[in-house]
Amino acid sequence: MDKLTNKRKLVEKCLEQQDQNVLNAKRAMDDIQESAVDYGQPQEHYDSYKSQLLRKRDVFARQYEQTKIDRELLDKIDIEKVYKTAGFGAIVVTDVRKFFICISLGKINFGNEIIFGISPKVPLYRVMDGIKKGNTFEFNGKKYLIKDIY
Description:
- The protein is α+β, with helices and mostly antiparallel strands.
- It contains three helices and six strands.
- The chain is elongated, with a radius of gyration of 20 Å.
């Protein structure tokens, strides 16, 4: 499979995974909201159960909004671009691991390989930002050789 086809399929997989993350966050937020409504008014002055439910709902609401933002970022990846340096949308192949610079997705099972989806906001990306094929970088005491970027 050529590099651009590989990248296209990887982006599709990431979009599917992120769509599921959006759905899960929305479902959790809705479930907590429903529990709070079902609970009704606080039973006594110091009843904190409903307040806890509403705080949880707010946490899930923030997660839901962030997953939607991250989903939009994935849509902005130019799947037709072959990168020469590490940057947003690039797949970076090292002698140790493969990284997809997109959003924080963590471990992605992609066919027979594992690729790590990392955000440009994480420290690992900061040490590889702008580096080219053939260069090395060090992170947490471990050296990485960049074998390919696309």
